[in-house]
Queue: 2 jobs
Job 1
Amino acid sequence: MSSTHTHSKKSRSLTKNQRIVLDLLQNSGEPLKAYFILDSLKKEGLNSPLQVYRALDKLVKLGKIHKIESINSFIICNNSNCASNTAFTICERCGKVKEIKNKHLKDSVSDLVKDNQLEITRYNLEFYVLCKSCKIN
Amino acid sequence: MSSTHTHSKKSRSLTKNQRIVLDLLQNSGEPLKAYFILDSLKKEGLNSPLQVYRALDKLVKLGKIHKIESINSFIICNNSNCASNTAFTICERCGKVKEIKNKHLKDSVSDLVKDNQLEITRYNLEFYVLCKSCKIN
DNA sequence: CTCTAAGTGTTATATTATTACATATGTAAT
DNA sequence: ATTACATATGTAATAATATAACACTTAGAG
């Protein structure tokens, strides 16, 4: 169908499936599970787990989303360019997840990685916390 | 049966299932998957996944083993008392996993956690690396 | 001995993720 | 435009990982 709209030279533009999965994660802001994403996007035409996993894989590779390993969930990347490095806090009580934006923390990690002569290609840091509202109650 | 051997007051002694799972992980030294453990211990009398998962859960709680989230595997704890805090390197090429024993690194993490006013209850750090032998070849 | 917490054994099922294969699409080079 | 190639798609089947539910047993404290 008339594919003459402005797609210019950007081979980086996302496909339809990648787009709708990214949009959902963007709008949610929370970590979502693959099968929840599938259910949510049935009406958009997603029918099988594979369609979701393929989109997720691609988005992870592009650095647009992250996988939080310990809860098998995916979340939009809030940093402009964290590449494949991730750092999260996860509330042990309510499960709330936040990406750590703190540049100082990330720099510190980078430093201590160097100090310890680890040749790191990337890292995934999961800090379990008691979040503010859970601490109060 | 005669349970008159010296179990003294230590209610901390492991049960049979916990024991054989721990022994397997101890002897292996590598990360093992739950269903691999199940297969390996069929001859010892383990018949169902649940028996394995229950033993693993308990051993994790006791701090005797760790779960490496990103590969759904379990590994013996090499540190005397890392509680539930874990730090691993994972080779991106061969998959080899090593627990980071480096006290300096762990101290540094603790420090920067304090510096950043994160109230951490525990953490799981996964550093992806290119291990020595993979770097050479 | 009795109570209780923890562990066991088993079946069934839920959740998470991949394999395989045929088809379609986008991009670049001819 | 035609070919070639990498990437993406759609679909069905299945693999891999983990938990629920239930009846029963064991170990240790009082």
Job 2
Amino acid sequence: MSLGKILVVDDDKNICELLRLYLEKEGYNVILSHDGSEAVVKFNALNPDLILLDIMLPGLDGWQVCREIRKKSNVPIIMLTAKGETFDKVLGLELGADDYVVKPFDTKEIIARVKAVLRRIDQNNAPAENKEVVYDKLVVNMTRYELKVDGKVIDTPPKELELLYHLASNPNRVYTRDQLLDEVWGFEYYGDSRTIDVHVKRLREKLEGVSDQWSLKTVWGVGYKFEVNE
Amino acid sequence: MSLGKILVVDDDKNICELLRLYLEKEGYNVILSHDGSEAVVKFNALNPDLILLDIMLPGLDGWQVCREIRKKSNVPIIMLTAKGETFDKVLGLELGADDYVVKPFDTKEIIARVKAVLRRIDQNNAPAENKEVVYDKLVVNMTRYELKVDGKVIDTPPKELELLYHLASNPNRVYTRDQLLDEVWGFEYYGDSRTIDVHVKRLREKLEGVSDQWSLKTVWGVGYKFEVNE
DNA sequence: TATCAATATCATAACATATTCACAATCCAA
DNA sequence: TTGGATTGTGAATATGTTATGATATTGATA
């Protein structure tokens, strides 16, 4: 079993192979890339769990790759920087790097940081078990990806569930369709906002007449909200 | 109604017309320009909400236009680039382009990207956190898009609500009809200012006799105000 | 009080938005 | 790869909102 996919981006192939060797020994699945734009492509295609990213790169440089990736994802990024190279930590933090390591590094250090970052991420995701909202006769649990209505589990596709969860997490607040597309579907989603309507309809079918404490309301000319009485 | 003004800059008039056709069908207002320096002039004069910018241009090339515009504005720019043309993505990002599309493009893709970029920008216009004004027996909450009168929620169309919110946010201040049209309806709205009267009337129906602490007053010969005692 | 212009009111036309449906595209697991 | 489930799309319909013009009413002014 793999502990996770790691994308290693460095133009120095020796370093790449070295990292691959050690990371695989630790049980990670390693993908290599030697240039910036290719790295972005591979990131999109392969969806790694962590990225080790050199700054000096052909194509796009590390900062640019970082910026590109951050447009779409919060995947942890560890920057690699050569000793002597002026490393702009401020820039790094602004662009959303999670950590950085100065070359030459020893493999133990890299492994340790990789583990540390993944552990940190893991804590944010997993033990935050309480990704759940509860109202009268309604339970939306995102840990189990499960919708319970009046005690019964209702089979619900992921997008619908995510939409409901999003709305129900902020009861009474109106969301425009565009907001929902950004916040539930994701930034680079190119789609028609009528999509939202259809998902709302499908949710309503499942939730119809269950409780008078809450409902999925249309706010005409604006968007939708999960309305809760008092 | 227009969803926004888009400046299309391309020396190929067929492409321009094609883009115009599709963008206008989507409800955008389209301005065309076939050369770089003219594009800069038109940008300054017309203040578009988004720019579709070809790189190969007579006059100034796309990069130069991009740089010129970025000196003064953060308007979103989508670069158009011919396949095979070496597109310098790095340069593009540095100069501040927001996205780019490779020709020949599929019109759906362009539309999608335009929407996506505008959607990102638009987050500012979305219903904001806790926008609410409260007076005796009156609550206007723009986060919920809700009007509460004497504890009861009164179903109110968006324009009416926005008008009331606008007036009530600045109690006792008089607004002319033209000001209200600009500030609530939006700049490019060309309408009869009698429209305001009708909306005020409808609001009054909803608010009649609720409280003597406040009221929607006509200022004869001038406009309207939300008057509050003391 | 007569007059004129500003405002209020109303009905309805024009418009914008939402719902729904059927089906197409896509994704995923066997 | 195939079939079933999910997700997205476009069109028809239904619904609600907003604009407009005609007319009545009101307020300012002489």
